[in-house]
Amino acid sequence: MEFTEQSATDKDGTATTAGTAPGLTTPTDHATPLTEAAIRELGDLLDGRWAELRRHSRTVATDPDLVHVPGLPVPEHRDRVLAALQKLADASEVQRAFPTRMGGEDNPGGNIASFEELVVADPSVQIKAGVQWGLFGAAVLHLGTEHNHEEFLPGIMTLEVPGAFAMTEIGHGSDVASIGTTATYDPETEEFVIHTPFRAAWKDYLGNAALHGVAAVVFAQLISRGVNHGVHAFYVPIRDTTAPKDERGAYPMLPGIQSEDDGVKGGLNGIDNGRLAFDHVRIPRTNLLDRYGQVAPDGEYSSPIASPGRRFFTMLSTLVQGRVSLDGAAAVVSKMALAIAIRYGTERRQFTGADPDVETVLMDYGTHRRRLIPRLARTLAVQFLHNDLLERFHGVFSGEHDTDEDRQDLETLAAAAKSLSTWHALDTLQTAREACGGQGFLAANRLVSLRADMDVYATFEGDNTVLLQLVGKRLLTDYGRSTAQMDVAGQVRWVADRAGDMALHRTPLRRASQSIRDWGSRARSAEELRDPAVQRELLEDRVESMVEEIALRLRASQKGSPVEKAAAFDENQVELIEAARAHGELMQWEAFTGALEAITDPQAKRVMTWLRDVFALTTIEDHMAWYVVNGRLSAQRARTVTSYVERLLKRLRPHLRSIVDSFGYGDEHLRADIATGAEAARQAEAMAYHSQERATGRAPVSEKDTAKGRAKGAGRVGGQRASA
Amino acid sequence: MEFTEQSATDKDGTATTAGTAPGLTTPTDHATPLTEAAIRELGDLLDGRWAELRRHSRTVATDPDLVHVPGLPVPEHRDRVLAALQKLADASEVQRAFPTRMGGEDNPGGNIASFEELVVADPSVQIKAGVQWGLFGAAVLHLGTEHNHEEFLPGIMTLEVPGAFAMTEIGHGSDVASIGTTATYDPETEEFVIHTPFRAAWKDYLGNAALHGVAAVVFAQLISRGVNHGVHAFYVPIRDTTAPKDERGAYPMLPGIQSEDDGVKGGLNGIDNGRLAFDHVRIPRTNLLDRYGQVAPDGEYSSPIASPGRRFFTMLSTLVQGRVSLDGAAAVVSKMALAIAIRYGTERRQFTGADPDVETVLMDYGTHRRRLIPRLARTLAVQFLHNDLLERFHGVFSGEHDTDEDRQDLETLAAAAKSLSTWHALDTLQTAREACGGQGFLAANRLVSLRADMDVYATFEGDNTVLLQLVGKRLLTDYGRSTAQMDVAGQVRWVADRAGDMALHRTPLRRASQSIRDWGSRARSAEELRDPAVQRELLEDRVESMVEEIALRLRASQKGSPVEKAAAFDENQVELIEAARAHGELMQWEAFTGALEAITDPQAKRVMTWLRDVFALTTIEDHMAWYVVNGRLSAQRARTVTSYVERLLKRLRPHLRSIVDSFGYGDEHLRADIATGAEAARQAEAMAYHSQERATGRAPVSEKDTAKGRAKGAGRVGGQRASA
């Protein structure tokens, strides 16, 4: 590797870090490699509170019985993943969230941390495990009471009862409240009658529904005594385990239940997703998961939560772990993608630069740095925010911090984090795959299959766009509350302030005052840009201003008809979602900045601070039009952002391998041919061949170096090289 | 469908189009549907010069033997695609580019047009056909002379001889000039010795190499009499067709030749990509494809092109059809993706708006319009630029317009078009897939498998980043020429002008003058933004300014050492590639604008003009930071761009189905369950069920509508609906 590191010597990093790290002010310090201890320290920080469980699970994920086999036909892949789940269940790897009294560990946070690392083996294994224990099992745990637990959890925990989580319908995905399936109570027999009234109400996309599931938690409108009490969950046996399995490995359906196979999908083909429909299927009254709603034998409905709306929200909020764990899995996969692409990018050479005999390492190209390093920085932000989210999740579900407000904050943060991180993972995987060229397209290098599997993370457990709208609405609500608490005089003052402030932003007044500062040196500007207070102000200001503008516009429409109100919301929807995204980015920045404080190794802290700065400044770059149009940054300052980013990318170049090494994913986890050093070996062999040819005089003379060739104007070759 | 159209009534389109289309100035005209004739006219325009061949091929692509079968195991998919190729060859569907005297049609443009539509059947069929006839066969045609044609083309045209195009090596993809394979001439036996000197020189990613290829066109450094004459192409038999096939369907390798299977890929798994290596393999002297380089029996090398650099460029430029056809295939696939997503988006409903009993159609959401309509506009731009490119390609290869300059222009335009269109296709497929939610992830709805197959289009036949760099270098060369032609006084004046201009852009002078105009009404601004001259100026200005700035910076470094020059280039690489992208977008805009002129139906012309405006203005929006920072648009004007785009998106809403219908892809081409009207039928059934329940009084009362429920504060339900 030393040849690649050499070429990355930082050329312009003289003055900019002076003053922040005393004693480390000479230019060469920028390239001082991280020590092994520093890399370990970063690894501990990234792996977070449940580092030990996380690493244990990462090792479990290298089990040859669990890992993804490219090209396996769908039926074999499904069988293989089912067997993998049984192995995990038998080894008690997947039950940590369940009660200790039932063989679990009452450890919600640790359970999610270890679950997330299963994606290393095969995302199908992770998600099928998620269906069984994180959705089907968790629904029984969180929506049921002790009698439900005693009756249903043992079979779920051991996988004796594989099950489906039957919430989504063909006609209703994100809008769960509107599902069509009904559960009508019949006091005569003390049974619920589960029914699918029309095609759009078929349950769809359910893991375990096509083949392996023998029961399901079915969400349906609970109707008793002619009143619809809203969506509740019911435990429904769906397949007859007393009969023999068919040739696909499925038990026959129980009477009144139909199943369809969703068939081949864009990824996750180790999971047997399918549809379910119910024709007046009767289940005992006690199969209602009755923590948040009970029906007495006579049909009298009762609930500990009086408001149907709040009850619905509370029930769904118990299932937030799906989003939390997808957020973490997205972080894991992004780290893997970058470990593969950066390893290859620091070895692979293509085209010559200054020296005609030595080809340039990809990572020494400006474009390659631009493609990979900002995504590395963002991946760290994603991981640190995930660590905060997981702590918060554990707080709520362990009961340590479980107020209504805690649950709402958790819900909002999970929605923001999951949508940003799953889109980021797709973007990172695709960029990594393209950065590896043709190699990136081979399944042997892992990136394409991971991308195919991760695709659906953007729309399941909540469509990302819908989730961001949820975040946006929460921001509006909070904003409304903060203004509602003012007295009338305060409101008048506040509105006047806002009006003045908005005029300020629309005219160049604020810009004018900033432009005075802009006449200072570029180095001075760079100094300011790496000031966390400046970064925070820029990121915060954008969220707050956008929310405020939207709120004021919506407020203006509040006196209109329902149609006008709906139209006003529609006109603000795109910007509301953008505001929610900005909020998520601010949360990522806060988490990254918070994480820096814990780093003790000075060089590690410095390199990670550069990466935090890259995250902050490329985020600001992405939204530069907003900052300039709204007078937050002058044109001159906007240019400084980009040139400072470029400087940071160069400065980070020698440290990239150390950073991805700190992720803790070795060859056995990455399972990518190009991330094993094979490319460096091939390059070395080729270079040795060429230099030996030259040394022994066996190398042919190039036509353009012959007398005849020189006369013919061979100079064009260089310029045309890229033409293939 | 009428209920969806109703809800899209344009609410604010009163004054903005007045004046451009006399007689069509009443507000309701905006929503006047396109007539059948207008839709056909648009279809003709989009299908271009070879519309008839294109439609014929589109029909061929519905042949059940050709279409993609999701989930087929790789070996079966490979067999199926080979059989599909034989069927195409037998029906003379794929030989139109070959000489009439040999059974072809001497129709290069028509050949590509019909080839592009094969992607409708299965991208593997398209690309395997491309390998056989567009690369392997085209190399023999364009790089060989008559004796090569007579000897090799008949077997290639009938598929009796499936072959590989062995250019890329493990160690060298885009940098073809540096490949390691050698072809050393031996005058004793009058043979070339083909040799792979090290592992990095193995040929890789070659379609037909793993199984089906029995010959290959091998690119190698031609060495004779101790001189390396650069890369040439050789026809090399690789498998022994006299021996029986093995169980995989492959003949055994000929002596000295090794093959490896690339295995499973991210897509295109109907093609048997693989590697080849040669251990001193001897072929006759006459197997050199000798149009651009001949070796006499005694080893004397000669070429009609004296300069080795120009010779290399000329040889590679004959293979530009790969890029041209990928550009066209990207357009086809983007159109299919939008036809699927827009059909579904105009039927699918989710969440209620103003009316609590009627759910809102997805396409009536601001975010949905933002996601799909700008991509529809860009797809049209891609198609129109492709039509221009294909005309240009036909001009060169039919000999009608075949100068050096024509070839260089073709090469540059193909590089720009292909990189922008293939990235656009991936972006569009992914957006379409997410816009269709879980349905989008099912193979039955086509989007995921098309995306998987199209992935590699971004890096094969030239890595998109490398291609854009090629375009950027051409822009710099052209710029250098235009300044070089000036006399000294002119240069001085020019530099002074530029300096003044740049100062102007860095200070707010130009902005100040514009800001006077900005105080006019917003309608007035919108008027200006839809003036094609204003759009062109904005797009052109950006390309020219970026190229100029880069050129001036590079010029400043020209006196430095090679290391300094390389560093200067590296520092400008990201921006050069961005300038190339801007150039491509300008070309797309020009093509779109040019195409508008041909439309005779006034309403079609108007709707297409809105779409051109959406393309122009969203492109400007994407680069808004540049426009504002560089003083081309004021902050006020920048806001107008976005609000005008929003207005256009609403105005286009009722016409979306007509536009995608004009693409000419019916159910038989799209083969997507959700694009068949099935969703509308399900919605209708559900709505009928609910209204009948209400009518008959069978519907249960909602808990929140009971006296008890109202007391409990049911108002929260609406706000929380999105929480699942």
UniProtKB/TrEMBL annotation, chains A, B:
| Any GO BP | lipid homeostasis
Region annotation (Disordered) ranges: 1-32, 685-724
Question: Keyword Magnesium: yes or no?
Answer: no
Statement: the UniProt record of this protein carries the keyword Nucleotidyltransferase: no
**What are the protein's UniProt keywords?**
FAD, Fatty acid metabolism, Flavoprotein, Lipid metabolism, Oxidoreductase, Peroxisome
Q: Which SUPFAM superfamilies match?
A: Acyl-CoA dehydrogenase C-terminal domain-like, Acyl-CoA dehydrogenase NM domain-like
- Where found, per UniProt? Peroxisome
Q: What is its EC number?
A: 1.3.3.6
Its needed co-factors are: FAD
**Regions of compositional bias (Basic and acidic residues) in chain numbering:** 691-708
Q: What is its main location?
A: other
Domain Acyl-CoA oxidase C-alpha1 intervals:
317-476
- Can you give the residue ranges of the Acyl-CoA oxidase C-terminal domain? 531-674
Output compositional bias ranges, type Low complexity: 14-29
Entry's Gene Ontology molecular function annotations? acyl-CoA oxidase activity; FAD binding; fatty acid binding
Q: Which family does it belong to?
A: Belongs to the acyl-CoA oxidase family.
What is this protein called in UniProt? acyl-CoA oxidase
The organism encoding this protein is: Serinibacter salmoneus
